[in-house]
Amino acid sequence: MVGAGLLALGLSACSQDDTLAKQARAGDNKNYVGGDGTVTEFAKDQRKGTKDFTGVLFDGAQVSEKDLVGSVTILNFWFASCAPCRLEAPELVKLHTEFAPKGVKFYGVNVRDEKATAEAFEKSFGITYPSFNDKDGQVLLAMAGIVPPNSVPATLVLDKQGRVSARVVGELEGGTMRTLIQTVLAE
């Protein structure tokens, strides 16, 4: 009897709704699970570096995790038909304009699109920083355990050692992102 009660309690806990589970069951054909805007900051002694990777930008240049060391770096995971990605694009352009002169590197990580689609998106929103062509998932896999694999958009702030200092899962808010960047720049 006690075992049956514990089993029922355990199963009821599994059936509780959370926002990601609701999205997965929605059947709305958007083909991604959007984050909820959760912001996570990591203390210096809790930060993880990325796994080794070499990604290819849409212009053909190769970038590895070693190229990210020495500068604060922003990695934004996106694709063109993602509605929250379209909403946050103008904020990313503003942040890039503000922080690139201070040495902050910005990279998009496009997880789905062909080159022409990605370039059209970037032209529409005035994005001038480069994006990885990550349809093969190399950059995303290097962030395993840091970026949920099906949550787009997601944005990482890497410190000058190439470690993740902050993560936003879902559409970013410009003021919050500005603070996250300023914090790690001041270190």
Automatic annotation (TrEMBL):
<protein>
    <submittedName>
        <fullName>TlpA disulfide reductase family protein</fullName>
    </submittedName>
</protein>
<dbReference type="InterPro" id="IPR050553">
    <property type="entry name" value="Thioredoxin_ResA/DsbE_sf"/>
</dbReference>
<keyword id="KW-0676">Redox-active center</keyword>
<dbReference type="InterPro" id="IPR036249">
    <property type="entry name" value="Thioredoxin-like_sf"/>
</dbReference>
<dbReference type="Pfam" id="PF00578">
    <property type="entry name" value="AhpC-TSA"/>
</dbReference>
<feature type="domain" description="Thioredoxin">
    <location>
        <begin position="44"/>
        <end position="186"/>
    </location>
</feature>
<keyword id="KW-1015">Disulfide bond</keyword>
<dbReference type="InterPro" id="IPR013766">
    <property type="entry name" value="Thioredoxin_domain"/>
</dbReference>
<keyword id="KW-0812">Transmembrane</keyword>
<keyword id="KW-0735">Signal-anchor</keyword>
<keyword id="KW-0201">Cytochrome c-type biogenesis</keyword>
<dbReference type="InterPro" id="IPR000866">
    <property type="entry name" value="AhpC/TSA"/>
</dbReference>
